[in-house]
Amino acid sequence: QMADPFLYNTGERSDYGCLGHEVEIEHLKAYVCRPSSSTDKAVIVVHDVFGWRFPDIRYIVDLVAGHGYITICPDFFKGTKPWTPSDHWVDFPDWMKNHDPMKVDKEADVVLKYLKEQCGAKKIGIVGFSWGGMAVHHLMLKNPQLTAGVSIYGRIIRDSEERYSLLNPTFFIFGEKDHTISLDQIFLLEDKLKQYCKVPYKIKVYPGQVHGFAQLKPEDMNPDDKPYIEEARRDMIDWIKMFV
User: This protein's superkingdom (predicted)?
Assistant: First the structure.
C-alpha cells in the first residue's frame, strides 16, 4: 500500500462559497471568475487529482481573479470521476493511466479559444497544482499561446531532454518536505533547465512545506505554515504579473 501522497487532510475541508460561476465550453465544463474591472488578460488554473469542483482550487481561481485576471478552471477530467479521499491508493496508478496529465492539449485548446473569442483575452497564463503542475510543465513545452506558467509541486517527469525546452517563462514551486518529489529531483531539474532552457525560469523550494501546501484556504492553514503559503501565492501572482 502506497503512502498517502497528500499529507493534508482532505476529509476535513472547510466549505467555500465561490465568487464565480460554471460554464459549458464545447465538451468541457469550467468554473470561471471574472475580476471587478475589464481586462484582456486571463489565467487558466489546472486542478489537482481532486478535480475542478474541489473547494481549494475554486478558492485559488477566485484569488487569481482578485488580482485582475479572467480566471478559469476547466474540468480536465472531462466529466469522469476525480480521485476522492476515500479511494484506495493501491488503485491510484490505474486511475492515473486514465487521467494522464500529458494528455491535456485538446482541452487546453478549447479553453484558449474560449478565452480569446468569448472573453477577449489577448495574453493568457497558466498555473497548476500537483497533477495540474505536471500538466502545466507539459503545456509550457508544447503551447506557445501560453505566455507564462507556474507549476506547483508537479511531479518531475524525466522521459527525455525535450522536457526542458520551455517555450515561455515558467516558475516551479516545491515544498521542501514533499515526499512525492525529492530534493535530488529538483536539483536535477535545475541543472537540466540551465543546460536546455532558453527562456526565463525559476525554481523555489519553500521550507518545511508538504505536498498540497499552496492551495490551502486561510481557515485550513497551520499558523507555522501560513507565511510560506502566502509567500508562495505572492510569488505565483508576481510571476504571472511579470509576464502576462
Answer: Eukaryota
Query: Cell 486542478, residue?
Result: 47
* pTM for the structure as a whole: 0.94
Which sign, positive or negative, has the C-alpha torsion 111, 117, 120, 121?
Answer: positive
CA 78 to chain centre: 17
Whether the predicted pLDDT of 2 surpasses 60: no
DSSP lists the bridge partners of residue 119 as none
Average pLDDT over residues 131-155: 97
Q: Which residues contact 60 (CB under 8 A, 6 or more apart)?
A: 45, 73, 127, 129, 215
Each domain of the chain, given as residue ranges in start order, spans 21-243
